[in-house]
Amino acid sequence: MSVGILIMVALAFAFVWYFNRAQKQILRQQMHNQQIELQYQQDLLQKNLLVQEEERRRIASDLHDEIGSKLNVLHLNMHRLRKMEPQTNDYDLTIEDINSLIANTIDTTRRISHELMPPTLEDFGFIEAVKELSQHVSQSGEARVDFTWEVTREEIGDATTELNLFRIVQELISNSLRHGKANEIEIRIFRSDTGIGLQYRDNGKGFEVDQMERKGLGLRNIESRVRIIGASFQVSSSPGNGFEFTMTSHNTNKFTT
Predict the structure, then answer these.
(1) Is 158 domain-assigned?
(2) Does residue 156 form part of some domain?
(3) How far apart are CA 173 and CA 143, in angstroms?
(4) Are 98 and 77 in contact (CB under 8 A)?
(5) How many domains are contained in the chain?
(6) 3-state helix, strand, coil in the chain (%, to 5)
(7) Is 207 contained in some domain?
(8) Is 185 exposed, middle or buried (0-12, 13-18, 19+ CB in 10 A)?
(9) Which among 133, 137, 243, 251 is positioned nearest to 199, based on CA atoms?
(10) Which of 41, 186, 191, 194 is the most buried (most CB within 10 A)?
(11) CATH number where 162 lies
(12) What is the residue-level pLDDT of the chain in tens, covering all 257 positions?
């Protein structure tokens, strides 16, 4: 009888020890998962801040280089005008120069404002904004942009998702023109088995994908925005074979990982 009791007690202690050990392992795993999630959120925040800081630098550069320089010329012309005799040929020419420069400054201000927040995006959504952007690039002669879509505005998501998607397309087009020297671009928004997708292709000069990190902040901005809206993406490229970017979601109402 005493041997049986001892065995029962030993089994009970063994069970308690195993249970406690298992609980500690579960807690350690939970803490490890929490640390991974915290690090992911910190990385996401850092990338988001980098995107915002880069946009601030770009805005500051546009204001300084384009608006500031034009205002300086206007100031000089106005100073010259005060020293001229009215109704002379030089006076009239300076007035024309000033009027032309003012009109040009207004156009530049409007362009910068539209790049910051396109009215079409805010009023009519992502699809209409990309249609407008595609037409603008095509009409400029820089590249022919073919844009197709199979989804509605409601299926894409909220205003934040639309804005980040539009910035991604903007950045991709900018990279294609500036770095890839592409003259043909295809953009497609489609439904997939897992949700909604964005496919982007160009016929530019391409690059080695394993060197993507060296391609500047543009692609890092794109990666950050993809994470912000909770999507996943793939890049395919090689020298001489253009560039392809595919982003997918697993939910028809929101881009998710």
Answers:
(1) yes
(2) yes
(3) 9
(4) yes
(5) 1
(6) 65, 15, 20
(7) yes
(8) buried
(9) 243
(10) 186
(11) 3.30.565.10
(12) 566 677 776 777 777 777 777 778 887 888 877 777 777 666 666 666 666 667 677 777 777 777 888 888 888 888 888 888 877 888 888 888 888 888 888 887 877 777 677 788 888 999 999 999 999 999 989 999 999 999 988 888 788 888 889 989 999 999 999 889 999 999 999 987 777 889 999 999 998 887 765 555 567 778 888 888 888 899 999 999 999 999 998 664 555 43
213 Cβ neighbours under 8 A, 6+ residues apart: 219, 220
How many Å from the N-terminal Cα to the C-terminal Cα in the chain? Answer: 61
- Residue 206 tokens read as 């391409």
User: What residue type is assigned to position 198 of the chain?
Assistant: L
Task: Please count the helices (runs of H) and the strands (runs of E) in the chain.
Answer: 8, 5
Q: Cβ distance 190 to 197 under 8 Å?
A: yes
For residue 55, what are its two tokens? 């946009």
CB 65 within 8 A of CB 30: no
Structure tokens at 28: 């350690």
Name which of 103, 110, 93 is nearest 70 in CA terms. Answer: 103
Is residue 227 within 8 A of residue 44, CB to CB? The reply is yes
The boundaries of the domain holding residue 135 are 120-257
